[in-house]
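FAQ: What does the model actually see?

It sees only this:
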Amino acid sequence: MDEYPSKLLQEAIEQFSSLPGIGRRTALRLALFILKQEPSKVKQFGNAFIKLRNEVIYCNTCYNISDTDHCSICAHPGRNKEIICVVEDVRDVMAIENTGQYKGVYHVLGGIISPMEGIGPDDVRIKELVERVKNEKTSEIIMALSTTMEGDTTNYFIFKKLKELNLKITTIARGVAVGDELEYTDEQTLGRSLMNRVLYVNTLAN
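And it is asked to produce this:
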């Protein structure tokens, strides 16, 4: 184990290195950077994360991260509430919003079906999506999950749950390469995939 001149420094490094993608060398640089800052700035930095964890909530309708009961997208009068784009998590909402091409609303599943990781249909918000479609005036569901085996499995499960309802079910075009995560797809490609979406049932014949 690395030796540090201070246990407090070591504790800070351990906290930083617990974050995804942060190794111990990067954690050391971050800790030393924090150490050089004014106490007021460090307090502001820390409080931002405390407030994030304690005060942020999820939209009652789509489960997007929000500061109020209804997120800014669901509350916007200019959004088409009849079109619901189904995504895995909040990062995908941000990726799609950055394209500027989509004017509907969202449904954030909070994960995708992954038997290898012990995540089943009841562990994501599929039941809530079905209830939402039944209770709202929905004309189209766009399934915009990552083009991975887990994403495809989740798409198919959702399709089976919704196919008897009178609505259009589409999926983003394969401009997003197989195996790609939406958050890493460039805005132009993702926007084009949304605009050129296809009927999901047609993809089953391929």
